[in-house]
Write a structure and sequence with these properties.
By secondary structure, the protein is of the alpha+beta class. It is built from 6 helices and 10 strands. The protein is 46% helix and 30% strand.
């Protein structure tokens, strides 16, 4: 089988089939059958798809570069600030921008417009380890399961949500001087749904905590993205002993830590 271009606009697929005939010495090739198939339109579509794919990856790459530039400018501005509250606000903005940039960086390396979610979660956890823990509260981040592949329209907001949940787990579960602990992210993608569970073995929720009434910016972002953009559901509750043993964190008393469950249709 051989493929060749007759002109710049015409492509044929040639197949040569030998014809066997009887001779005095037995069977031998006495001729051939040449089959030509015009595959011009097929190859045109292939080239268009490759061109579109390359264009999409280039767009993601440029968006990532622009976001990194914005992040760098914000960090420079943050160094000039004197207010601790302002510094913290800028640092949180930088973290959110880096999360979105990370998604675009991953998409710029992937064919098509979807991405293996695990390839985003792993670097997200590395970012969390770099930016959220301190010497007196070492926090270990691990991921279990496989999130499958997600379209970019879902991967980006769900990554922002996960980043906010990690931040919340550290800030409220492991305050400064607490000695640290573990945060485990469990991914489960099946039957048209993406389920994410975030378990931490730190301080538990206040008894009167209600997610719908939380006023912090991080949880407000989570609620907005989950309910309006992702059309999903999210719950937060105190941990049960079986929650910790299920993810390999050993025995913990009832009411320890926090369990967050996020479900999104995909």
């Amino acid at each position: 089988i051989e493929e060749f271009e007759q002109t710049e606009d015409t492509t044929f697929l040639a197949r040569c089939i030998p014809v066997l005939g009887s001779t005095g010495a037995g069977q031998a090739v006495t001729g051939g059958l040449l089959l030509l198939r015009d595959v011009t339109e097929v190859r045109k579509r292939d080239r268009l798809l490759l061109s579109k794919d390359a264009t999409i990856r280039e767009i993601h790459h440029r968006v990532k570069n622009n976001l990194q530039t914005i992040s760098s400018l914000l960090r420079l501005q943050g160094r000039r600030l004197t207010s601790p509250e302002a510094k913290a606000a800028v640092a949180e903005s930088v973290r959110r921008i880096r999360t979105i940039a990370l998604v675009h960086e991953t998409l710029s390396r992937e064919p098509g417009d979807d991405v293996a979610f695990l390839e985003i979660v792993r670097p997200l956890l590395r970012l969390a380890e770099e930016g959220l823990q301190s010497v007196d509260r070492p926090v270990r981040f691990t991921v279990q399961g496989d999130g499958g592949r997600l379209p970019s329209t879902i991967a980006t907001p769900i990554s922002v949500v996960l980043t906010e949940l990690l931040q919340n787990a550290v800030d409220h579960g492991f305050p400064e001087g607490s000695g640290g602990g573990d945060v485990v992210v469990v991914l489960d993608h099946q039957e048209g749904q993406m389920h994410i569970r975030v378990v931490n073995d730190g301080r538990s929720l206040d008894p009167d905590f209600e997610l719908n009434r939380a006023t912090g910016l991080g949880l407000s972002i989570v609620r907005t993205l989950v309910t309006t953009e992702l059309d999903g559901t999210i719950t937060m509750r105190a941990g049960e002993p079986e929650d910790f043993t299920a993810v390999g964190l050993g025995d913990h008393a009832r009411g320890t830590g926090t369990v967050i469950d996020l479900t999104v249709p995909v």
